[in-house]
Design goal:
The protein is of the alpha+beta class. 38% of the residues lie in helices and 20% in strands. The longest helix is centred in the N-terminal third of the chain and has 16 residues.
Length: 156
């Protein structure tokens, strides 16, 4: 099947994009922002944790295990975030055996997700508090991937 024979617009666009890539190569231009402030603010905390889990590079994490309590006093929500076998999971509530407990407002989390603040800036300013092993949380965050927008469609 070729692009002009495809019955749906999505399939047609996929085929034509692959054909254009094979003929002309990938021309990386300005990368559009894929995460907007409205999108981050519109996510519930479970949605945000799913978003975070997508960015975890499980093969790099390997056999490392992490467990964190995340407390958001401004919205009254608490979660336990775990990483085991290269997979990130979360549950409502807190656990007793964790590497650290992180306390921050939801609005502060949004600023971190948008790149407006770093973890170090948060800790220095007092906008976030980490009780326990601070290094473990930073280590876990180091396994997050940034996806390259201009990936190949038709070639591996």
């Amino acid at each position: 099947m070729t692009g002009y024979q495809a019955e749906s617009a999505s399939a047609r666009n996929f085929y034509l994009t692959g054909t254009k890539e094979l003929r002309e190569g990938i021309k990386a231009t300005v990368t559009p922002k894929t995460v907007s402030p409205d999108m981050i603010k519109g996510m519930t905390l479970p949605m945000f944790f799913d978003f975070l889990a997508i960015h975890l590079n499980g093969s790099k994490v390997g056999d490392h295990h992490y467990a964190f309590n995340l407390i958001f006093p401004d919205v009254g929500e608490k979660y336990t975030l775990t990483v085991k076998n290269g997979v990130m999971n979360y549950l409502p509530g807190t656990a007793e055996k964790v590497d650290s407990t992180i306390i921050l407002d939801r609005k502060t989390l949004d600023k971190v997700a948008l790149g407006e603040l770093t973890l170090d800036e948060l800790l220095e300013s007092g906008q976030a508090q980490i009780d326990g092993q601070k290094g473990k949380f930073k280590e876990m965050l180091s396994y997050m991937d940034n996806f390259y927008f201009w990936f190949p469609i038709s070639e591996p």
